[in-house]
Specification:
Layout lengths: L2 H18 L4 H10 L2 H6 L2 H21 L1
Length: about 70
Amino acid sequence: MSLTYALELLASVDYVVDNEKTNELSDLVKSMQSWNKRKGELFDKDHIELAHKHLNKYKNAVFQSV
């Protein structure tokens, strides 16, 4: 996995979660894969799930320390 792929994946997952107000993995995967043809082909479910878990883990850590 390249750095640019990982960065785009994390940013895209964060965008969908914030703008579609969903934290459900199934909804997130559908939104990511239907965003556009390129993202639908580029990001697979396992990578979306991993990015989602990563963002939730660190989001919770950041807000607990404030």
